[in-house]
Protein 1
Amino acid sequence: MGIVSFMPERDYKSFFKGKRITVMGLGLLGRGAGDAEFLAKCGAILTVTDLKSEKELRPSLAKLKKYKGIRYVLGKHDLADFHDVDLILKNAGVPLHSPYIAEAHAQGIPVAMSASLFARFSPGPIVGVTGTRGKSTITHLIYEMLRAAGRKVHLGGNVRGVSTLGLLPKVKPGDITVLELDSWQLQGFGEAKISPPVAVFSNLLDDHRNYYKSDPEQYFKDKAQIFLHQDKSGVLVAGREIAKKIRAIAKEHGWKGKLLLPKDLPPAFTLGVPGEHNRENAALAVEAARVLGVSEPVIRETLANFIGLPGRLEFVRELRGVKIYNDTNATTPDATRAALAALAPVKPILIMGGADKELDMKKLLAVLPKHTKKIVLLPGTGTDKLAFPPSLGRKTVRVTNLAGAIREALDGAEKGDVILFSPAFASFGMFQNEYDRGERFLRLVRALK
């Protein structure tokens, strides 16, 4: 099946050259710095503003040091920077009802995001992937299948260190770009009223309550922007559990695309990563790959060779017969439950805890007594709110830092045991983000004698 692409309105260099652009949110993941660098190279007149201080942003600022014309407003935002400009580039995580974005809208200033701007100017077709869980795995599986099929393919969106806008010089007509898109990035697609012509929507689970608490349904509405603006040639591959919600909002918006619900992955298809949740992810990726014309032998070979992603049930090492896994990207209770199910019938020593996202922990707490040998708790606002059932007894131990958690997990661990670092909470407070958390865990574990 063929796919269509957005035709650029004009050359992106001409569009950005000389434009006065406020970049809202530099961040530390490399994407914001990459966007600013791309715009500077295009000749835009930039103001970069972030609530973090110059000291906190030092790694990102170092990447932009050679671009002398960038003006910085750090440690605060100033309403004046949202007046008299040509464009606001909003990065992920900007508050849902930001007064600065509201001011830009009131002034008639366009607000865009990196991924949606890329979609507007990309000369090649785009595949978009979203969902509460599994979107990273699905994105990378589709990318690897296309690559194995000999297609020229690029990877972007919610990928650490990758500026999606910065991909534009690399993408040639006919190249495919696979974008992992979170709800924040899809706000930009909603603003631009565009959707990728091929989209995957894996699932909808409880997440980001701290962000969407004033309007929980907005979380789904933001996610739905991945398909709502498709024309009749558009294709959406979706998990069966959310098909009803998708059909309802699709009917409301008069969506004309095609909805595909994948079948279970056949038992004969081997997968290089454990867990039923990963077989569900793989089934979605397989359906999208078929839409994109990838052959069955290539699909099967790619699945068998796929070893997973860093920070997602990642096997780190075996120490004295104890296997250690890094699942730092499990920032929700559902993700930790999936990791426990993937390792069953083994009952791991679980390291968990962190910052509160205002999510319901009841289902996770209910499975912990039967599915864990011991629980080591990191400090955090979420950990403080946990109410463990009496059946956990002396299984739980609180520690003050990550090094202490690893020591406690290893203390009493026997040959054949598994240590699982699957926090179920956000990382903020102790760490910069979940990647920083995972990297520190890896360093500590790899340094063990």
Note: Confidence is low (pLDDT under 50) at residues 1-8.
Protein 2
Amino acid sequence: MTYRGELRGKTIELEKPLPYENAQVVRVTVEVEPEDLPPGSPGRVLWAISQPPHLTKEDVDELERAIAEGSRPADYSGIFDEEIDS
């Protein structure tokens, strides 16, 4: 179950009460709301890599193989590289 709240020092104030008795031991996982993180920020990157799909080593190997197979050599020549006859 997911609850939303605000951090206030060492306390997290939840929008709604939890359905447990007082003093009940609970496990808490804290994540920052992604829309509050600037694009490209370390927090946004950490959030993005924690989201599914979670890739296996084989998935990454296959992606790298496909990239290598589809790559073409770079052409560094430009339209201004040709000699002009005067």
Note: The longest strand covers residues 5-8.
Protein 3
Amino acid sequence: MAGKTLFSRSGYESTSTAAIAREAGSSESQLIRYFGGKAGLLEAIFNDGWTALADAVTREVAESRHGRDAILRILGLMIDAFTHDHDIAFLFLFEGRRMRGATHEVVLSKGYVTFMELVLQLIHKGQEDGSFRKDAPAPVLASAMLGCAEGMLRERILAERQGRPQPGDDGEVRKVFAAMVNGLAPEA
């Protein structure tokens, strides 16, 4: 919790392991022992957050009759998760896929990979049930949908942090996302 809060408020680079340990009432050696350092802690935070979201998506995969409807519900799950936990929302949307370290690699957490695999399953399901077009590869559709959702949610967080008016409420975000998802249906 301490790492999540500090990374979100001060940024990953500006947050030291000493500050995290102090905030957690622990020691740097314990943080390093359990997580290997702040990179390992950040990965653990991402895994926990994405795994929780993936668990909810798993239920949608099992319960949905149509891929399109499940994808629309996933946006609702993301909005709910990000509304209840502003820190994880910031980390997912701003720190989640940044280059890190000397190799400048983007490290994707296992939780994110699992989440994306589930989204791809729903898109394949939608292609089979006729709710998504088949002439575009599922990974392209997934990228378009996730990019749209993340972009709208990212703008809301930026506006909040900068003291600007929100660019849209939950209903407006859902409406625009639904229009975009409907545009990925097969052509008549």
Note: The chain has a mean pLDDT of 88.
Protein 4
Amino acid sequence: MTRIRENEERREFAEEAPSLWRITFGPVIWALHFVLLYGGTAVHCARGRQAALSFAEVRLAVVVFTVLALAGIAWFGWRSWSQWDVIADREWENDKGTSEDRHQFLGHAAFLLAVISFIGVAYVALPFVFIENCR
């Protein structure tokens, strides 16, 4: 009997593996965006006059990376919102511990992390609106 239960738990975990990955994608995109923007700008400013790009081109790259990051996070957020499925069943609490409750909870958690990551990316890019050069 325990063998059957173990196989069932492994099957349920395998079904939720994409949901577990989806939780991490928003914060990972945010972190990569942060490192690319601030690291790239630091390298550009450290090179000074020998830099290959002008600061206007760096700002354009920031806009492109930010739009790509926001689009990726929005896509994962939309997938998580669909998994949460709160509109269809109007069930705000998932406290029964069933596999459906776990599935919806993981969607809810991933959606909230996507929202936080979206805001984080916007705030990381905000200084580049006001900064005009490296000094």
Note: The helical segments are 2-47, 55-84, 86-89, 99-125, 127-130.
